[in-house]
Amino acid sequence: MAKKYHLELNHKPNADGKYSLLLRVSENRKHKRISLGYSIASKYWNEKNKSIRVGCPDKRKIEEKFRQLQNDMQDLDLEGLKRKKPVSIEVLKNRVVKAQYHNFYDFADSLIKRWKETKSVNHVKHIQSIVDNLKVFSGDRSLNFEDFSVELIKDLEAWYVVQKNVGSTIKEKLRKLRMIFKEAEEAGIIEMQQNPFRKYKLPKGVSAPKVILEASEIRKIEKLVLPPGSLIYHVRNAFLFSFMNAGIRVGDLIQLKWENIKGDSLDYQMRKNGKRLKVRMVKEAQEILSLYYNESVSPSDYIFPFFSSKVDYSDKFFLDNQISSRTAQINENLKAIASKAKINKPLSSHIARHSFASKAIDTLPINELRGLLNHSSIKTTSTYIGEINADRASDALGRVFNKGRK
After folding, report:
1. Pair (382, 335) in one structural domain
2. 3-state class of 112 per DSSP?
3. What is the reported pTM?
4. Residue 338 vs residues 38, 218, 243, 251, 349: alpha-carbon distances, Å
């Protein structure tokens, strides 16, 4: 029976509510599907005619891509018939996909395009960073999948060390590269034995020491006299508010609204893992809030003036860029705060979280600390505590012998 080719809309929506378009090839009631790399809103799909409606912005490009893939598959099928060696639809799909993405960068770009619709912004940015790193590492040389070997990945690992990346960062970058190869293997672009990560072992990934503020250093920051209404004033207040509320991550801190305040409690959803956290605020945290509250604020207003309620942040990539920009400003001002307070540490927004955990270790059971940090498991919290305790131990002798000398 002759093979049949149809345009098809995936029945499951992507994260953004759009639907992926597929080429479906059928033979003897068996089907194989190939993504066209495009997604559309359901209003642009004519289910009865299995076609794209007029008005769809990418209609012409999608139909051209469909015809190109259909022609490629028909050519391969005809070649097999001429040789009296019929090609199954599975082999046909694999050959077309391999021909499409013989080049590593082409395949990686197709993944990024798809993941922009289905994955988090951070995930997409990390994958794009790996691709950009490889281009620098290889001197902008085109890389095909067969160019990769265990030796090349070891060279890349060494290159990351030269670029002054810490062990945990190198491990995470190579883990993301391994993810691209896994996708290529599952898509039939490379065979299992062609995947160098089948033989390469990821480095252990030792983290850089966590910077922690002592109670005396927190008090120095609290006592700083700063111009009311200035950016450095708001950064200091936001940093202390984060510290007093279990170390709010900066991306969440920037987006806090008055609707997240429920009486004397703070209730918000963490951007990183989607989990909710509700904590009863201490008096000092409520005093910081009182500096920003007035009768004219609405629940949808941001608490700290890093974002504007007049700006639309609904586009996730725009939102991420804005958070990155504000985070850079906040960290720059935190360095100035450290200098003014005579704190000889590289102060940054995340240190509020480390410092809270360090303070809480001595008073809270690990299961309660896990709840406040909203870690996925006790193991994560134990690792976190272990790293902090190791850092504290490094200057333990100094604290022992200096005690009582002042």
Report:
1. yes
2. helix
3. 0.62
4. 49, 10, 15, 21, 12
